[in-house]
UniProtKB/TrEMBL annotation:
Belongs to the class-III pyridoxal-phosphate-dependent aminotransferase family. GO terms for cellular component: cytosol. PROSITE patterns: AA_TRANSFER_CLASS_3. GO terms for molecular function: pyridoxal phosphate binding; transaminase activity. The keyword Lipid metabolism does not apply. SUPFAM superfamilies: PLP-dependent transferases. InterPro entries: Aminotrans_3 (IPR005814), Aminotrans_3_PPA_site (IPR049704), PyrdxlP-dep_Trfase (IPR015424), PyrdxlP-dep_Trfase_major (IPR015421), PyrdxlP-dep_Trfase_small (IPR015422). Keywords: Aminotransferase, Pyridoxal phosphate, Transferase. This is Aspartate aminotransferase family protein. Its cofactor is pyridoxal 5'-phosphate.
Length: 449
């Protein structure tokens, strides 16, 4: 029963990103079932999943053909590795399928199990590339404040969330510039002027570190866990120009943006970014199996391949046959059903338009979004943008009310964030929006606004 499961969980299970005191006192929900866009806990509560799991179940929870593809693959070849010249059919086919759906300069992939490992791989690829072209001094990586690129030591070093960075003892070859978070940092400035100004912090950082020492800049097209930070239109073209001019590899972390979240297959396409390396994970298997990787653009791949020798890197499960079978079937569904296009042209505009209804809500400071991706900033004073009770957890309160009322959304800082499955229809989006509205009303009245 739930009570004894929860007690065992509290006794033995160390949860990621969970406050240990809070968990010891209150425990949490134990999920036991999922269907379409709904998740059910062991006490029978039904929740609309407005986060697609951890931004990964873009096609919801009932994709039977992915489950069958994994089952079939487990019967044929449950495991073999890809080291030492070995391969397996799903890995080969998924590599080709990924090349087919990614921008034209991507013709190679390196598989990992997760986004974190993929970002570690990016660093090693960038270093190897500059070693091979005779520029070994180019070792430094520039990332952004408040970024999340994963939890391994290297990925957490890339990340710009201060608590995480500190616990990881951030690697000394990673440096950070500001994020293009206009609501937080831009104040009265014109958003596009702000976008250019923040992008140009990259030039200043490259000058400070020395162009001959900088290997790469890494960023998400839209920063997700940092709070769904939608960059001003001016931002990415300026970043791209700087990377091109300064011989800096551009790494797009597509772990959240990839596979349709922002309206196109990849966030890089939504924003016209031309990355040299692209990280993917999560939705590549619809979250059903652990799989990530790096799409290696021709600029880097040509040098690696021409250089010969081995890339001294690999994971026991790189290109795991069952995970790749899940990826292959996920890509087939995405291609055959036009789900990305339908979500972008029909459901996402409805989602974004309905969210805008809350712009005038007394505790809403900003509503921002792109595709099936959105954030609502909570304030106690709309004109001064004073945050809603940050010390007593205004946004946490709002999230808790939403959760209690059957809506899974997240809170980051003072914002409510959402990434519903792309398979939601308009009516399901209406349910999400209404539940969010009820949570906003309850929060306003709780804080007397
Ligand atoms: N990069 C981004 C942008 C992410 O959002 C995440 C996870 O949320 C990661 C990397 C790390 O991926 P994983 O948790 O699969 O290691």
């Amino acid at each position: 029963d739930t009570a004894s499961l929860r007690k065992l969980d509290q006794s033995h299970h160390l949860h990621p990103f969970t406050d240990f005191h809070d968990y010891a006192e209150h425990g949490g929900r134990i999920f036991s079932k999922a269907e379409h866009i709904y998740i059910y806990d062991s006490e029978g509560h039904k929740m609309l999943d407005g986060m697609s799991g951890l931004w990964c179940c873009n096609l919801g929870y009932s994709q039977q053909s992915i489950i069958e593809a994994v089952y079939h693959q487990m019967q044929e070849l449950p495991y073999y590795n890809n080291f030492f010249n070995c391969s397996n059919q799903p890995a080969v086919e998924l590599a080709k399928a990924l090349v087919d759906v990614t921008p034209a300069n991507f013709n190679h992939v390196f598989f990992t199990n997760s986004g974190s490992e993929a970002n570690d791989t990016n660093i090693k690829l960038a270093h190897r590339y500059f070693d091979l072209i005779g520029k070994p001094s180019k070792k430094l990586i520039i990332s952004r404040k408040n970024a999340y690129h994963g939890s391994t030591v290297a990925a957490a070093s890339l990340g710009g969330m201060s608590a995480m960075h500190k616990q990881a003892r951030g690697l000394d070859y990673v440096h950070h510039i500001n994020q293009p978070h206009w609501f937080e940092e831009g104040a009265e400035e014109d958003p596009n002027a702000f976008g250019i100004r923040v992008a140009q912090e990259l030039i200043a950082k490259i000058d400070e570190l020395g162009e001959d020492n900088v290997a790469a800049f890494i960023a998400e097209p839209v920063q997700g866990a940092g709070g769904v930070i939608i960059p001003p239109d001016s931002y990415w073209p300026e970043v791209q120009r700087i990377c091109d001019e300064r011989d800096i590899l551009l790494i797009a972390d597509e772990v959240i943006c990839g596979f349709g979240r922002t309206g196109k297959w990849f966030g890089s396409e939504t924003y016209g970014i031309k990355p040299d390396l692209m990280t993917f994970a999560k939705a590549v298997t619809n979250g059903y199996m652990p799989l990530g990787g790096v799409m290696v653009g021709d600029r880097v791949a040509d040098v690696l391949l021409a250089g010969g020798g081995e890339f001294a890197h690999g994971l026991t499960y790189s290109g795991h046959p069952a995970a790749c079978a899940a990826g292959l079937e996920t890509l087939r569904i995405l291609k055959d059903t036009n789900i990305i296009e339908t979500a972008a042209s029909d459901v996402a505009p409805h989602f974004q338009a309905r969210l805008q209804e809350y712009v005038d809500h007394p505790i809403v400071g900003q509503v921002r979004g792109k595709g099936m991706f959105a954030a609502v900033e909570l304030v106690s004073d709309k004109s001064s943008r004073e945050r809603l009770a940050p010390e007593s957890g205004g946004a946490v309160y709002c999230r808790n009310v939403a959760n209690e009322n059957g809506l899974m959304v997240r809170q980051t800082g003072d914002a409510m964030i959402m990434a519903p499955p792309l398979v939601c229809n308009r009516e399901e989006i209406d349910i999400l929006i209404d539940k969010l509205g009820a949570a906003l009303d309850a929060t306003a009245s709780h804080f007397g606004i």
